Amino acid sequence: PIKIVVVDTQVYSNTGGQAATSTFVSQVADMTPFGKNAAGKKEIRKEMSLIGMAHRSAFVLQSATSRPTHLIEGYIDGLNSRRPALFNIYAVCPPEHGVGDDRANQQSQLAVESRAYPLFRYDPDQGTTFSECVSLDGNPALEADWPEYTLAYADEAGQTQKMTLPMTFADFALTEGRFAKQFKKAPQETWNDDMVLLADFIKLSESERDGCFPFIWAVDKKNRLMRAMVSQALVNACEERLAFWHQLKDVAKVTAGAIDESAIVEKARAEILAHLTASLVGLGSGGVPAESAAPTPASPVAAAADGYESVYIDTPECSACDECTTIAPKAFVYNDQKLAIVVNPQGAKFADFVKAAEKCTSGCLHPGTPWNMNEPGIEKLMARAAKYN
To answer: 350-359 and 378-386 helices cross at what angle (nearest 10)?
Structure first.
């Protein structure tokens, strides 16, 4: 079967950087200028991966070079698949994106983290429904609108301070020259309460936005805190990227918590049978139907198997390779000695624990056994995990 690789630079890089249907909203390029009558591209971006998924029978991967595990696994699975495969890969084009030649990996990372370019794969062999076949694994903060990052800056006394902020599409755009005209620096003496953080601004209704001015926090060349005011065109771009993220989550059935649908069905069936039984018993004795016992609530996830062993790390042996903290940041963090520890043994899927163990350069991470036996492919994952326990 045919295998196709798309190098997605969001412009026609081979003919001078003209705007394309894959160009981001508000991006300034040839044929989408910024001026009195225009503010960059207006049309929403064409999503090649969704077009590939619409064929239903092809393997589709959307990935980035900054996520090598996701990228290489996708390549292997797509090439091994007995189906056509489409690999849509985010590619940094320094002259057209307005970034340094040495910034490719960092910009690719920001594109994923800001929802500019979500990781995505569609494998028809995983089931019959879209939610069974679609995976958003590898994206940060799956349940949130935007991931968070820490901004370090120098206060008026020159002391280093930190601020936790949402990583929006605008935060990514601020680092690239192709969006530079969508920002204006607000002098500190102009700061006022009408300025609203962009992530909060886009949650407001049209009437609530009246008189408000969106901004994002950044630092200047002296590492001092600054406010970058955001244009309406870039607000539109952020809303479009967020809407696309919501659409992907809806297709993949990503919710605020894992739900065991079979348990819900069984719970409903048990309630109906209990009610019918109580009614029949009551009628048979000539009395009032007996009250049915309160049903046992369904568990949100399948219980762990007997002998459950949680994921653990031999922390003194950690080499700070960043693999586990990147793959499962809610489960693993660094302590004050820059050594990895487990903070939430159920903070990621068992598949992520297995991947982290396989990538751990010092071999100190042990995935244990699954905490959710309903996870897809659990038997194969347990077999892969066995060699690291």
So the answer is: 30
Q: Which domain holds residue 293?
A: 261-298
Position 186 in a domain? yes
Among 76, 33, 88, 137, residue whose Cα is nearest residue 356: 137
**Alpha-helix residue ranges (DSSP H) falling in the chain:** 48-54, 68-80, 94-97, 104-113, 130-133, 169-173, 198-201, 206-209, 232-252, 261-284, 323-327, 350-359, 378-386
Task: Tell me whether residue 306 is in a domain.
Answer: no
Confidence of residue 376 (pLDDT cuts 50, 70, 90): confident
Residue 126 in tokens: 């995983």
Q: Is the model more confident about 87 or about 156? A: 87
3-state SS class at 300: coil
pLDDT tens digits for range 28-48: 776 677 776 667 777 888 899
Whether residue 283 sits in one domain with residue 375: no
Are both 52 and 73 inside the same structural domain?
Answer: yes
- Report CA-CA distances (Å) from 42 to 20, 27, 170, 183: 12, 9, 16, 17
- Range 127-161 burial, b when 16+ CB lie within 10 A, else e: eeeeeebbbbbbbbebeeebbeeebebeeeeeeee
Please return the burial class of 377, using the count of CB atoms within 10 Å of its CB with bins 0-12, 13-18 and 19+. Answer: exposed
Average pLDDT score, the chain:
87
177 CB neighbour count, 10 Å cutoff: 14
Distance CA 96, CA 98 (A): 6
The count of domains in the chain is: 4
Q: In this structure, is residue 11 part of a structural domain?
A: yes
Beta carbons of 161 and 217 less than 8 angstroms apart: no
Mean pLDDT value across residues 73-82: 96
Q: Does residue 307 belong to any structural domain of this protein?
A: no
User: Does 107 lie in the same domain as 10?
Assistant: yes
Between the alpha carbon of residue 100 and those of residues 42, 95, 188, 387, the distances in Å are 26, 8, 29, 42
Cβ–Cβ < 8 Å for 228, 185: yes
Q: What is the pLDDT of residues 95-130, one digit of tens each?
A: 989 999 999 999 999 999 999 999 999 999 999 999
Pairing mode, strands 213-219 and 195-197: parallel
